[in-house]
Design a protein that fits this description.
The complex is a heterodimer of chains A (73) and B (375).
Chain A lengths: L1 H23 L3 H45 L1
Chain B lengths: L2 H33 L1 H8 L17 H11 L4 E8 L2 E10 L10 E6 L5 E3 L7 H10 L4 H29 L14 H15 L1 H15 L1 H17 L4 E4 L13 H11 L4 E6 L11 E6 L10 E5 L6 E3 L5 H14 L4 H27 L3 H5 L1
Antiparallel strand pairs in B: 1-2, 1-6, 2-3, 3-4, 5-9, 6-7, 7-8, 8-9
The chains are: A mainly alpha (73), B alpha+beta (375).
């Protein structure tokens, strides 16, 4: 249970901090809110980018295998 | 969790999502340019600016501004004057045929606060941004459209919460952030859907729920007006400045003096809005002056004071009720406009991630396997 929920809870708490910090204080609060809200954005974008990159390399590998099969026939 | 319970949550997640997804996708897509509406207006030159004048040029009285506006648009009456923090030399003046309309035919003009001249009419009713705005706010269907979109927002809340319940069973054999890339596209998208859904959870709940509250704005202000009128009739008012108080300009029936008396009663506050008698934000006999404070939080939480232009008495009919506080806090949390451009960019990226969650959810449903169709 702890294993599953630890990081989601951390990200959720950071998001709450980010949403509130900019609202209650100018300057430092704004910086805090940018930093905290950048965490879910970074995790999300990183996962999307990596998933695309691996998919492309898999596609290339699949195409190569297909080519190889074609040549050997 | 028992399999039967899990299946029930799955059913809730599936149907709440399927019903709201087309509309929430529309809201996410139209909301994206709206995050930057200020910047877009500025770049496209749609923004109206007051002609430069030496600093400290005296301001015209609000009565003069109103008179010029009525002269320029015969048959219309002023309802509201709005002051914008970043355009101190302009008044946004809302005109309509009557003070008690639903504002569906209202006209917003901009007047120079120093010369009282009408500077222009912001082009809110046509163009790309206006279409985005109407699709986002009311689907061109007025209050009914707003309430419908609000209901879709509530379904989104149900979809998000049921999604969180389903997150744990799906993650039993996976680490946080793990995406099984080597498996079928459906498995990969399932993992991405779960990961993106759980990291955008708080933001999506906050923006979704504050959006729902914003759809109730008209009803909330109607409720507050009724409360103020009731408090006035019951005599439950707090007099901030008596009619015969010293140290404030004597009432002369003019609006400007009425506003000046409010400012004398509430120093350290700035005028955010002036509402004419009879409008939704005022009462039939009083002008309402909506004041805002000067910190990020108090500039959102406004105070409404009522002033009788004839007697000059300044009252607070009823303090801001909790539902108005909720609405006023909901606005920045929905718009993401309280932390400069970096916050707007983060808002846009979180919006895009939410679009991916919605899109992948739809994809997972379309590509559902034999096992899911039975569930």
């Amino acid at each position: 249970m702890t294993r599953i929920w630890f990081w989601p809870v951390v990200v959720a708490l950071l998001s709450i901090l980010g949403l509130i910090a900019g609202l209650v204080s100018e300057g430092l609060g704004d910086c805090l809110s940018w930093g905290a809200l950048a965490v879910p954005v970074a995790i999300g974008c990183h996962a999307l980018a990596r998933s695309r990159a691996v998919k492309q390399s898999l596609d290339v590998a699949a195409a190569r295998t297909a080519n190889h099969d074609g040549n050997s026939r | 969790m028992r399999a039967a319970v899990l299946r029930r949550w799955g059913w809730v997640h599936k149907w709440s999502s399927l019903v709201c997804t087309p509309f929430i996708l529309l809201l996410c897509l139209t909301g994206l340019p709206l995050i930057f509406s200020h910047e877009i207006d500025h770049l496209t030159g749609a923004e109206i600016e007051a002609p430069p004048m030496p600093e400290g040029t005296p301001r015209a009285s609000v009565d003069q501004v109103a008179a010029e506006a009525i002269q320029a648009y015969p048959g219309l009456v002023p309802l509201y004057f709005f002051a914008e923090e970043d355009a101190p030399d302009l008044w946004y003046v809302k005109l309509d045929t009557r003070v008690d309309t639903d504002e569906s035919q209202s006209l917003l003009i901009m007047s120079d606060a120093r010369t009282a001249d009408v500077v222009g009419v912001p082009n809110f009713d046509e163009g790309f941004m206006s279409v985005m705005y109407r699709l986002h706010v009311d689907l061109y269907a007025g209050l009914a459209g707003k309430l419908f979109l609000g209901f879709m927002g509530l379904l989104l809340m149900v979809a998000i919460i049921s999604g969180v319940v389903l997150y744990a069973p799906f993650m039993r054999k996976l680490g946080f952030g793990e995406v099984r890339r080597e498996r079928t596209p459906r498995t990969r998208w399932l993992d991405l859907h779960n990961l993106l859904g759980i990291v955008t959870l708080v933001w999506a709940l906050a923006v979704g729920f504050t959006g729902v509250i914003n759809t109730w704005a008209d009803l909330i202000f109607k409720g507050w007006q009724a409360e103020q009128v009731r408090a006035l009739q019951a005599g439950e008012t707090r007099v901030l400045l008596a009619a015969d108080a010293e140290g404030a300009p004597a009432a002369d029936g003019s609006l400007q003096t009425a506003v000046d008396r409010v400012m004398a009663a509430a120093p350290d506050m700035a005028v955010a809005m002036i509402a004419w008698p009879g409008t939704l934000r005022a009462t039939p006999e009083h002008v309402a002056v909506i004041l805002s404070g000067n910190t990020p939080l108090t500039s959102r939480l406004t105070q409404a004071l009522l002033v009788d232009p004839a007697s000059g008495e300044v009252l607070e009919a009823s303090g801001r009720p909790w539902y108005v506080t909720a609405l006023q806090l909901s606005e920045p949390l929905h718009f993401g406009d309280y932390g400069g451009l970096p916050l707007k960019i983060l808002w846009a990226l979180l919006d895009v991630l939410t679009i991916v969650v919605l899109g992948s959810g739809l994809y997972l449903w379309i590509k559902r396997g034999a096992s899911e169709t039975r569930a």
